[in-house]
Amino acid sequence: MDLILLQNWLDNASFLVLFVTMLTYWTSAAFPQWSVLWSLGTTGMAIANLTTATLLGARWIEAGYFPLSNLYESLFFLAWGITAVHLFAEYSSRSRWVGTVTAPAAMGITAFAALTLPDTMQTSAPLVPALKSNWLMMHVSVMMLSYATLMVGSLMAIAFLVITRGQNVVLRGSSFGGGSFRDKVEQLQNTAHPDSILQSMPLQSEADLEIRADSNGAGVAVLQQPDIAAELSPQRLSLADTLDNISYRIIGLGFPLLTIGIIAGGVWANEAWGSYWSWDPKETWALITWLVFAAYLHSRITRGWQGRKPALLAAGGFVVVWICYLGVNILGKGLHSYGWFL
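The structure corresponding to this sequence follows.
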C-alpha cells in the first residue's frame, strides 16, 4: 500500500477510534455497573495509541526524518502522547474517570489535524536547514511529551474542580506535603493529647492551622475548619481524592520532561544561533510554563496544599501550555517560526 494512502487511512482511523472510545468512557461513567465498558474504553485507547504510532512511523519512512516538522505531525504526536500518558495513569490509578477527560482531548486534537487542516499543511516537505539536526528528535519530542503529560495532569485538576463544585475539601491523599509545614504538623501531633482533634483530623494546608499564644506564652494550635459550602457525597469525595492524586503524580512526571526539553533546546539554540537563550516568544512562554508548574509543585511539596488551590494553578497551566505550544506561533513571530512548525 502507498505510504501516503496509508497515512490518510490511519489519521481518519485514529479519529474514529478515539470518538468511539470517548463515547464508551462517557457511557461507562454514566453506568458504572457495566464494567465491560471500561475495558472496552481501555482497549480503544490502546488501539488509538498504536494507530497513531503507526501513522507517525509511516510518515518517518516516507519523509526520511523524525515526524515533528509541521503542525499536522506535531498534533498527532501530541495525541499519541496523551493516549500513552492516559494508559499509564489509568493503569496506576485503576480509575475509569481518567478516560472521560483524556479521550475527548485526544479525539479533538486528531479531529483538528485530520479533518480541519488543509491538504497543503498535511503534506510532508523538506526540512529547512535550521531543523536538519539530531536535536530535532531530542528537543522537540521531549517538549511534546511534556506538553502531553502536563495537559493530562491539568485535565485531571479541571475534572477535580468540576467534581467538587469549586469547594474547599479536606483530602486524605498521599501528596500531603512536606517541608516546614509537615514538620510543624508532625511536631504538634506528637505533643498533642491522644484525644486531640489534631491526632485524627487531616490538614491540607498551612491555612488550616493557626498558632496562637496562650496566657503563659506557650504555643497553642488552633484548627481552622475547612470552608465547605455544600457537603459532597462520600463517592464524590473519594473520586475527588483520586483525581487530585492523579493530577499531582502526572504533573510531577511532566515537569522533569519539560525541564529536560528546555535544557536541550538551549543547547540546540547555541549550536544554531550562537546563544543559549534569546528571549524568543517561544522560549519566554516555555519559561512561563515552567514557572507555573514549578509553583504548582512547590505548593504541593513545600506548602502542603491539596485540593482547590493547586487545582486552580494546574487549570491555569493548561491554558499556558496551549499558548506556548500553539498560540505563540499564531500570534507572534520569532526564531521558532518556521511556517507552521511548532
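Confidence is low (pLDDT under 50) at residues 176-186, 192-230, 338-342.
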